[in-house]
Automatic annotation (TrEMBL):
Top-level lineage group: Bacteria
Xref: InterPro entries: Glyas_Bleomycin-R_OHBP_Dase, Glyas_Fos-R_dOase_dom, VOC_core
UniProt-listed SUPFAM superfamilies: Glyoxalase/Bleomycin resistance protein/Dihydroxybiphenyl dioxygenase
Name of the protein: VOC family protein
Annotated VOC domain residues: 1-124
Source species of the chain: Nocardioides jiangsuensis
Length: 125
C-alpha cells in the first residue's frame, strides 16, 4: 500500500527560530519555513521536517547523520562555526579530545542542535 509513498522523516524542537538559525546559518543547510514548520532540504532529495513541540524532550539517540568525506575536516570547520562536539569518556563510544570516535567502524563525531537533539558527522567510505 505505501510502497510508492514518498516518506520523509521529522523531529521536534522547542524553538523553531533557534533551529532555523542553527541549521541554516551554522550548518549551512538550505531550509524553508511554512506554517510554523521548518523543512531541512538535505542532499539527495531527503527533506526532513522540524516541528515545534511545547513539551519537547531531546532525542537521546542520533536523529540525523551527515555523511562526509573527511570527519576531521568537518569537525574542524563546524568547531570554527561554534559547534561543540560531544565527549563520551569511559563508554563503548569513547571519543578523543576533538570528539571523534575511533574505536572501530567509520569515524564519527556527535553534536547537538539547540534543542538538544543528537546529530553526527560520519565518514563515508
Amino acid at each position: 500500500m505505501l510502497e510508492h509513498a514518498k516518506a520523509f522523516s521529522g523531529f521536534s524542537v522547542d524553538d523553531v527560530e533557534k533551529a532555523r538559525a542553527f541549521y541554516a546559518d551554522t550548518l549551512g543547510l538550505r531550509v524553508s519555513e511554512d506554517n510554523g514548520l521548518l523543512t531541512l532540504h538535505l542532499a539527495g532529495d531527503r527533506d526532513t521536517l522540524v516541528y515545534p513541540k511545547p513539551d519537547h524532550r531531546p532525542a537521546t539517540y542520533t536523529i540525523l547523520n551527515f555523511g562526509v568525506d573527511d570527519v576531521e575536516k568537518a569537525v574542524d570547520e563546524l568547531t570554527a562555526r561554534g559547534v561543540v562536539f560531544e565527549h563520551y569518556p569511559g563508554t563503548a563510544v569513547e571519543t578523543d579530545e576533538k570528539g571523534v570516535f575511533r574505536g572501530g567502524g567509520p569515524l564519527i563525531a556527535w553534536f547537538k542542535d539547540p534543542a538538544g537533539n543528537v546529530l553526527s558527522v560520519i565518514q563515508r567510505d
